[in-house]
């Protein structure tokens, strides 16, 4: 039996066992006595004439190295408005790849929402301890999937909840978490294995990594930069364990999943798979932003990117959605007395043309309704404002859209409702669950500057003798040089060690 297991590798049984033992037990995560909480410094941040107290702290979390659990210090910034007295809701913030925490961002979020905020740096990022972050650590899953940086990032986020719970200003019944990209993945994982969150807002990050890579997402570039590929056992192990899709069904707090319709790391079908796996015991909701991606749409680029700066459109919706979800679940704002139903969207044929309809029964005022659609693989979206036909129905017949070109067999579509509680309350948006054609595969925009495999001086996807020779021949050179692997403007021992450490990767 042991021989069969080794021969056939990762099995469904093994995946099930890992799922059972993957994350630390709740009692271990909750244990404040192991935090070793330390204050580094304190100051006051002033933003738009408002002030927040900011404290830089360190607390203990864990990473796994060669199968061994290792204690590491985590850098974090706790911010709370100076006007706050007593116990209030609090939020853990998690950054994406290549990021780190800072006090001013924590203060800005705290002042905007009137809550406490703990913004932490992931392991090996900023001033946090642990192994220095590299792309390869994302896929350090063999023999132990807990070696992945994604695992350590999520556990550090869970430990941040323990820090907040120990602080005197925190209402422990009102703790939430939010994060962007890899921070969104951490948010989904934490909300799945930690029972202390009341709400979660993952932004531009989902589960479903295997499908994402099968569709040619930008995760492929991270794999290549790590000397791996989609079929590598390290990535397959990640998909079977730490991928947040496995935590989707156990989301504890109400989750608002926000993503761009054209996200290059987490395409729209992976977003839907994640959302549809959420449990029904919480009012989970979805916000899909048309003509928005993972950040490329902040630039005006030529073909083959075909992008345009849509950041104002996207940021307005994201900020409003966060305010809505925070107000509803953490601050009890009267502007958000309930979570509206999930809207619906439909396409119909009428006299050979396309008719669009959306429905929503809600106590909120409906400011406007749009239908967004793409018949080119979720590459670009068009939009049409629908007309109120009463009875919770909004409708429009488009005489310039033949049914053959825009219909459910070839078109991605979803409705977007702009809502408010009353004339003086803030607006926010919710969307229907997008409809995808049968057999849908998203078109993924190319990455402008894909990351290169560490030590691959000549860029051929393999760290070999040619790369080693280039570093040796250029040794001591200064300024811009392809042999300057670490980018510090000098070819030295550090570059040579990088090539030697990665020798054979990608070959």
The domain count comes to 3
The fraction of residues assigned to DSSP E strands is: 25-35%
Helix content: 25-40%
Number of beta-strand segments = 17
| CATH fold group of the largest domain | Rossmann fold
Placed side by side, the strands forming the largest sheet appear as 1-2-3-5-4-6-7-8-9
CATH class wording of the largest domain: Alpha Beta
How does this structure look, described?
26% of the residues lie in helices and 26% in strands. It is α/β, with parallel strands linked by helices and 507 residues long. It folds into 3 domains: 28-329, Alpha/Beta hydrolase fold, catalytic domain (Rossmann fold, 3-Layer(aba) Sandwich), CATH 3.40.50.1820; 344-431, Immunoglobulin-like (Sandwich); 454-507, Orthogonal Bundle (Type 1 dockerin domain). The strands form 3 sheets. A 9-stranded mixed β-sheet has the order 1-2-3-5-4-6-7-8-9, sandwiched between helices. The two termini are 33 Å apart.
Architecture blueprint of SSEs:
Elements: H1 2-8, H2 12-21, H3 26-30, E1 38-47, E2 50-65, E3 68-81, E4 88-94, H4 103-113, E5 116-120, H5 135-138, H6 149-166, E6 170-180, H7 182-193, E7 199-203, H8 209-214, H9 219-225, H10 233-240, E8 254-260, H11 268-276, E9 285-289, H12 311-329, E10 344-350, E11 353-359, E12 365-374, E13 382-385, E14 387-388, E15 393-402, E16 412-420, E17 428-431, H13 465-473, H14 493-501
Parallel strand pairs: 4-5, 4-6, 6-7, 7-8, 8-9
Antiparallel strand pairs: 1-2, 2-3, 3-5, 10-11, 11-15, 12-13, 12-16, 14-15, 16-17
Pick out its properties.
507 residues; alpha/beta; Rossmann fold; Immunoglobulin-like; Type 1 dockerin domain; 14 helices; 26% strand; disordered N terminus
């Amino acid at each position: 039996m042991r021989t069969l297991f080794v021969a056939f590798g990762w099995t469904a049984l093994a995946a099930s066992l890992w799922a059972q033992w993957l994350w630390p037990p709740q009692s271990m995560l909750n244990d404040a006595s192991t935090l070793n909480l330390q204050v580094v410094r304190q100051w006051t941040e002033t933003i738009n004439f408002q002030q927040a107290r900011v404290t830089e702290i360190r607390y203990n979390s864990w990473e796994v190295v060669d199968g061994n659990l290792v204690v590491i210090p985590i850098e974090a910034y706790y911010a709370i408005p100076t006007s706050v007295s007593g116990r209030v809701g609090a939020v853990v913030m998690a950054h994406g790849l290549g990021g780190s925490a800072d006090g001013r961002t924590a203060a800005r979020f705290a002042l905007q929402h009137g809550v406490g905020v703990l913004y932490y740096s992931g392991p090996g990022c900023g001033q946090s301890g642990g192994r220095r972050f590299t792309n390869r650590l994302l896929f350090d899953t063999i023999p132990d999937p807990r070696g992945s940086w994604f695992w350590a990032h999520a556990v550090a986020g869970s430990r941040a909840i323990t820090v907040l719970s120990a602080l005197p200003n925190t209402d422990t019944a009102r703790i939430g978490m939010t994060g962007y990209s890899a921070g969104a993945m951490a948010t989904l994982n934490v909300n799945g294995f930690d029972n202390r969150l009341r709400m979660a807002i993952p932004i531009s990050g989902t589960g479903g990594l295997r499908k994402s890579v099968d569709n040619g997402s930008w995760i492929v570039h991270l794999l290549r930069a790590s000397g791996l590929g989609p079929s590598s056992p390290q990535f397959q192990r990640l998909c079977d364990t730490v991928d947040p899709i496995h935590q989707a069904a156990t989301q504890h707090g109400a989750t608002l999943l926000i993503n761009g319709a054209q996200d290059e790391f987490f395409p729209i079908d992976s977003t839907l798979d994640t959302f549809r796996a959420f449990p029904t015991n919480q009012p989970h909701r979805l916000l899909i932003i048309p003509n928005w991606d993972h950040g490329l749409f902040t630039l005006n680029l030529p073909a083959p990117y075909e992008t345009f700066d849509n950041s104002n459109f996207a940021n307005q919706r994201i900020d409003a959605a966060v305010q809505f979800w925070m107000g509803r679940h953490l601050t009890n704002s009267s502007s958000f007395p309930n979570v509206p139903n999930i809207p619906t969207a439909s396409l119909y044929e009428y006299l050979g043309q396309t008719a669009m309809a959306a429905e929503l029964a809600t106590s909120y005022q409906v400011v406007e309704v749009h239908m967004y659609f793409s018949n080119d693989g979720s590459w670009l979206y068009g939009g049409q404002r629908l007309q109120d036909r009463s009875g919770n129905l909004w409708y429009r017949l488009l005489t310039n859209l033949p049914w053959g070109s825009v219909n459910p067999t070839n078109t991605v579509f979803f409705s977007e409702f702009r809502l408010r509680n009353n004339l003086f309350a803030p607006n926010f948006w919710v969307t229907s669950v997008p409809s995808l054609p049968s057999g849908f595969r998203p078109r993924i925009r190319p990455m402008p500057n894909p990351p290169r495999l560490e030590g691959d001086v000549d860029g051929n996807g393999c760290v070999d003798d040619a790369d080693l020779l280039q570093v040796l021949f250029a040794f001591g050179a200064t300024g811009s040089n392809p042999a300057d692997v670490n980018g510090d403007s000098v070819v030295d021992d550090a570059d040579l060690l990088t090539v030697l450490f990665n020798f054979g990767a990608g070959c």
